[in-house]
Structure formats: structure tokens, C-alpha cells
Amino acid sequence: MKFNRIIAAIIGCLVLLALPVSAETPILEELMRKYTFLLIFLSLAGAVAGIGYLYITGLLPKAIFETWRWIDERFALHRYVSLAKREYYSVVYTLMPATGRTMPQSHTERYNVKAVWYWYPFYSLGGLSFFAYIVLAITGIYLGFYYIPDGVMVPVDPEVPDGEKTSGAYQSMELIMTQVSFGYIIRAVHHWSAHFMVASVFLHMMRVYFVGAYRNPREINWMLGSILLMITIFFGYTGYLLPWDELGFAAGSIGLEMATSIPAIGPLMAQIVFGGTQLTGDTITRMYWLHIFVLPLIGTILIIIHMALVWIQGEAEPH
Ligand code: HEM
After folding, report:
1. Separation of 115 CA from ligand 1 center, angstroms?
2. Residue-wise pLDDT tens digits, 240-270
3. Which residue of 219, 303, 310, 311 sits with most ligand 1 atoms within 8 Å of its CB, as the best mutation to test the pocket?
């Protein structure tokens, strides 16, 4: 009965949100446009207050248990969880019993230590880099629906051929920022996740260095990681150019100068990376294909191998 009422309330809310406030704008979009940050803040505050209430009243464990029971009753998830757990831990006994290497068990788990080592949070940086990568992929797919990789400069006013110039790429960015539903939020999330990923990959590398985890037997993973760092930076660079605004153009000029200044193979490098020795529409076509296909393909394969090696070799013990 209670459940039916909740379903009815949810359907009621959905109908309300679908109703247009004016001729064409749905209420949800109208609200998001006007009160984006207030709504995000209120949703977060509501979630924190709700969980806080359950915690204070002592109902939190029951709520978690009931939710799990409700899902488990329908999908028998406990079977898959215990199967996965068994497989996960069995590798160490079946594949490498003599090595003494563990699956990624935590230090406390392995030695049954009751203390918490203060460096532990730094061990989450690789996982956080992976999380940022997933967020970037999802938001990037959304942006890809609207972005146009056209870097050819055309006059803003066709009547004045020598006047101000723009490009299809820049115009599509303007469209995303002003017309596309949630476009500016998705672009902002993509932008900040990119910064977050560069920072977390770098800090992850420092963590690996300072605990000496790059040593035998993890040399290959260190080398793979170094390539991943370069890929992450190159992701950022190619993405920075895509809006083809003044910043992108300036960054493109610097990159092109750097590529062409390489002795002997400079022009070839410029051709491969920038599509020529001048910044033209071809530069954007190339940056776009690198950004949405070549780098994601190589990056995803390398990340899978990198994390599989951690899974096979286990986490290094701190030195
Ligand atoms: C896209 C970038 C990267 C992702 C998604 C990633 C992901 C991960 C994850 C999830 C782990 C296990 C948990 C952890 O230690 O944080 C790990 C471990 C490791 N990573 Fe990365 N990583 C990346 C870049 C790098 C870089 C730049 C380096 C070094 C140049 C590196 C070297 C290593 C090594 C040697 C380990 C094993 C550490 C140990 O056993 O304690 N990784 N990585």
C-alpha cells in the first residue's frame, strides 16, 4: 500500500515535470536554467539530511538492509557476490601460491591489523583517475551529439568578408552553452573532470614513486603508467583546441611551433599531429579524431591492462 503511494507520487512528479511552463519549455528545464546551483545544493542538502535523519534515528542499517533485501529478492544478487568473492580470492591460491603475492587485499585485511595507515587515502588515487575517465567518457558522448568538428574560419557576416570570423566548431560550442538542455552543465563537468583526472593521475604516480611500488615486479606497470600519463595530457591538449576559440588557437600555435622545431622530422610531426605546418580546418579534424577515437581506444586498452596487472600482481607492500 505504502509502496503504491510512493509510485503514484513519483508518476505525479514526472507528469508535472513534463508539463510545459510556456509554449515550448518544460518545467524541469525552466527550473534548471534559473536555479541550477540552488537545485543542486538543495538536492545534496536533502540527501545529506535524509541520510542524517536515518543515522540519528538508528534506521540507517535497517534501510540499507531492506533495500538490499528488496533487490536481492528479485535478482538473487547474493549468489553473484559470493561467486565473485570466491573467484577473486581463489586466484592467489590457485595461480601463485608460492609467490606470497596477494590479490588487492588491504594491508589491514591481510595482516589482520587493527590500525589504519595514514597513507591509505593515497591508494585510492588510481581508482579516482579511473572514475574521472568514466565521467569524461559519459559527458564526452553527450557533447559529441552537438559538437561539430569544423575549424574552417568563415566571416560572421557574409556581407563583410574581411570582418570578424568564426567557425562551425565555435558556433556549435555556443549552441551547447546557450541552447542545448543541460549543455553548459555537462560541458562544465567534462572540463572539471579533465582537470581532476590530470591532477589525480599525477598524484597517483607520486604515490607509486614514494612507496617504491615501481620496483620489481611492477616495472612494466610503471612503464604502462608513464604512457597513460602522456595519454592523459594529450587528451587534455587535443580537447583544449576543439572549441577553436582564442585559447585553443593560441595553444594550437604553441604546439605547432614545438612540433615543427624538432630537428629533421619537425614538418613530418606537424603533418601527423596537426594535419599540416599551418593551423587550418584540418587541424581540428585531426584533433577531434585523436580526442574521440585514437586516444580513447589506446587509453582504454592500456587502462584495462594496467588494472589487470594490479589485480594479478596485487598491491605493493609499502617500503
Ligand atoms: C589513466 C591513468 C591511470 C589509471 C586509471 C590508473 C589506475 C590504477 C589503479 C586503479 C591502481 C590500483 C590502486 C592504486 O594504487 O591507486 C594502479 C596502480 C598502479 N599504477 Fe596506475 N593508473 C594510472 C596512471 C599511472 C601512472 C601515470 C603511473 C606511473 C607512471 C602508474 C603506475 C602504477 C603502478 C606501478 C601501480 C601498482 C601500485 C602498487 O602495487 O602499489 N599508474 N593504477
Report:
1. 24
2. 999 999 999 999 999 999 999 999 999 999 9
3. 310
Q: Per-residue b/e over 91-128, b at no fewer than 16 CB within 10 Å?
A: ebeeeeeeeebbbeeebeeeeeeeeeeeeeebbebbeb
Which structural domain, as residue segments, surrounds residue 137?
120-313
Is 319 within the bounds of a domain?
no
Taking only the tens place, the pLDDT of each residue in 135-153 is 999 999 999 999 999 999 9
Residue nearest to atom 31 of ligand 1 (CA): 225
Residues 130 and 91 in one domain: no
Distance linking the first and last C-alpha atoms of the chain: 59
Residue 315 near ligand 1, beta carbon < 6 Å: yes
Q: Is 129 in the pocket of ligand 1 (CB under 6 A)?
A: yes
pTM value is: 0.73
Q: Say if ligand 1 is within 6 A of residue 122 CB.
A: no
Query: Which residue, 111, 128, 154, sits at the end of a domain?
Result: 111
- Indicate the residue type of 6: I
* Residue 106 sits in the same domain as residue 127: no
- 104 and 170 inside one domain: no
**Residue 6: inside a domain:** yes
Amino acid at 204: H
Ligand 1 close to Cβ of residue 102 (< 6 A)? no
The confidence score (pLDDT) of residue 316 equals 79
